[in-house]
Design goal:
13-stranded antiparallel sheet, 326 residues, mainly beta, 24 strands, eleven-stranded mixed sheet
Length: 326
């Protein structure tokens, strides 16, 4: 399955959105970044590349930069990860980009084997679910620099991931979360998963469906098959996500850490609202041990905005106004 999806899909498949994204936390656990290379291709073709940099400083409001580029100005590899064009580059070895007064030059190394949120390949090729996701490179190491105006951040041995998702539409609502940095310093441990509701026929909505994968060295707990989807007791709240199974449980809590709020567009023009932190509290009980972290990524998405959280970009912004930054 890795060969089939280590490439860009939206450039040859109209009617898709696609995100190739990167995130990492600093060793001191006080900073994090999130870089998104999004493609939004409507059914009639054309489309736009949406490039985001979101900077997180613990205890402060996240900062957001965004730039939109016509899709025809981008060169996309169709047999491997490879995007170039405008002021951006992404491949399996590193990335570079510039948005307004922010820029980055990062190299990738290490990482664990790919993590699949669907345990059967047919769910990556079938029409259902409409959204597909996987993590090609968990626990990836990042080295390089990020510049925010006149501030330079040296990125040395930051740990995170390279992720990939795509689909005909975003889920109606979801919680997504993962963790790559642990309180006990483990480097070969990762948890990644989701709980989502999706649109069915005639406007109906599915029940909440979950999938979680956990690795700790040679030990792996996979709850990513169809029989695992309907986890009783799963909880999705604006700042809390909990998934319990008989032999495993995952709990993530945003606490008082500020969310970043992003406007997510669907290929048909609809809008959903995404909220994300890189400093969630994480507790994993794998049946044998309890693992904790304060460097989890927790993201929730709804069809309506949450009160009290600023959304980016501002509602009136277009690329004609210049690159966006908060």
């Amino acid at each position: 399955m890795r060969d089939a999806y280590e490439r860009h899909l939206a450039g040859v498949t109209p009617g898709l959105y696609e995100s190739q994204y990167l995130k990492a936390n600093s060793p001191a656990n006080d900073q994090a970044f999130w870089i998104k290379h999004n493609l939004l291709v409507p059914p009639e073709g054309g489309g736009v590349g949406e490039f985001w940099l979101i900077w997180f400083q613990r205890g402060e409001a996240p900062r957001v930069w965004k730039r939109e580029v016509p899709a025809e100005r981008l060169q996309l590899e169709t047999t491997r990860i490879g995007l170039t064009g405008d002021q951006f580059r992404l491949d399996a070895q590193g990335c570079a980009g510039k948005i307004g007064d922010a820029s980055w030059q990062l190299g990738f190394s290490g990482g664990l084997a790919p993590l699949f949120h669907f345990g059967s390949e047919r769910f990556y090729t079938a029409s259902f679910p409409r959204k597909k996701l996987l993590t090609p490179a968990p626990n990836l190491q990042f080295d390089g620099t990020i510049e925010l105006g006149d501030r330079r951040i040296d990125v040395a041995r930051w740990i995170g991931l390279r992720g990939h998702n795509w689909g005909r539409e975003h889920a109606f609502a979801y919680a997504y979360g993962g963790c790559n940095v642990w309180d006990d310093g483990a480097t070969d441990r990762v948890v990644d998963g989701f709980t989502a509701r999706v649109r069915l026929v005639a406007g109906m909505l599915s029940p909440w469906m979950s999938g979680v994968v956990f690795r700790d060295g040679a030990r792996e707990v996979d709850h990513n098959r169809k029989r695992d989807w309907f986890a009783r007791g799963a909880v999705v709240e604006p700042r809390h996500w909990h998934v319990p199974y008989r032999d495993f449980s995952l709990d993530m809590e945003a606490g008082s850490e500020p969310y970043v709020g992003l406007r997510y567009r669907h290929p048909d023009g609809r809008e959903s609202y995404c909220y994300n932190t890189k400093f969630a509290a994480v507790t994993v009980d794998d049946g044998a041990r309890r693992h904790t972290s304060s460097s989890g990524e927790l993201e929730v998405l709804y069809s309506h905005p949450l009160p009290g959280v600023a959304l980016h970009p501002s509602e009136s912004w277009t690329q004609r106004d210049g690159d966006y930054h908060s």
